[in-house]
Amino acid sequence: MTETAHPRTAPLRAxxxxxxxxxxxNVRALRAHxxxxxxxxxxxxxxxGHGAVxxxxxxxxxxxxxxxxxxxxxxxxxxAAGLPGRVMCWLWTPGGPWAEAIEADIxxxxxxxxxxxxxxxxxxxxxxxxxxxxxxxxxxxxAGCQPADWAELVAAALAAEARGLITVTGLWSHFACAxxxxxxSIQAQLxxxxxxxxxxxxxxxxxxxxxxxxxxxTLTLPESHFDxxxxxxxxxxxxxxxxxxTPADFxxxxxxxxxxxxxxxxxxxxxxxxxxxHHYVTPGETTLxxxxxxxxxGVPRHASGTGPVLVGGKWRTVAGRVAMDQFVVDLxxxxxxxxxxxxxxxxxxxxxxxxxxxxxxxGTIAYEIVTRIGTRVPRVYVKVKEEQGG
Length: 390
Ligand SMILES: Cc1ncc(COP(=O)(O)O)c(C=O)c1O
Description:
It is built from eleven helices and 19 strands. With about 400 residues, it is an alpha/beta fold. The longest helix is centred in the middle third of the chain and has 20 residues, at about 185-205. Helix 1 packs across helix 3 (about 50-60) and helix 7 runs parallel beside helix 8. The two termini are about 15 Å apart. The chain binds pyridoxal-5'-phosphate (PLP).
């Protein structure tokens, strides 16, 4: 029997089915790609739109010993849901919930002195040793400590460690171009990471984990695996970039299937304008299907006139503009019943488009397609239990 988080007593307008067996299988596949490293499942932004708590549980079952989030609030929400084990978060702003995170035994990341000071002060105030990871900017130019400021951060962290206030549990960094194999920044970042780690270790830091690999590096760059790989998009069965390969090439399976029930099917004459702005005009007498999801649900408006949808066994294309709550497809004279499924994307093996197809149609990346599916679309969890095929 299939377990769901939402009772299906009534047909749903739209649903994002989340295959938790696929999450587990993807985590196992990723562990096989990085057999010498531990695995962090990155579940920020509600697990890229898939549901953080459910996906975190499934990832844990498959051997992800770490969970990663951007914000401390996301990490605290995992704890509140009862998830034990190592959890790390990295996107802090001044005055953040350091004390709560430290008391919840969350690894906190600092990229500079203000953050270290706040973490140390909070640890002192709550009387609990904080687990602190030092983030190095090895070239991404986003978060992380610049090489020129590293000695000061390392020295201050060691001083706080000597006072018993923190433990430096990790040294880490993040790639800029790991999804472009051969990009010169990759080896440059790796070399600088090794240098910055070596410096900190010479000074006396004893990190439990050193890590820099995201999904593309986990899949393509074994020398980047160190002690831990931080995989996000690949956990959800999506290739980090179509140029790297398909999900199947890496033994991955897309987790989310987004579908809606046709709200209306009707005959229209030739020359009929469709949706706002009349950017589509029926070329002949035809049937139109109304798909009741729109940009409020995360269907990209940029896919107006281009997004693919499987209806009645055929790919159709969004006719005219995607509106806030709905869009239209030209069914070419076919007459599926109202309520028939319109599948926007899924793993692809039922003939449906994939999130990657939508990314191409909207001029974006598949990360954005799945992450932006809105809260109005219920997530329906299937294969929740390990023995159901996970
Ligand atoms: C710091 C950090 N590590 C790891 C990841 C996971 O990246 P990916 O989804 O490409 O695996 C992200 C996501 O953006 C991140 O911000």
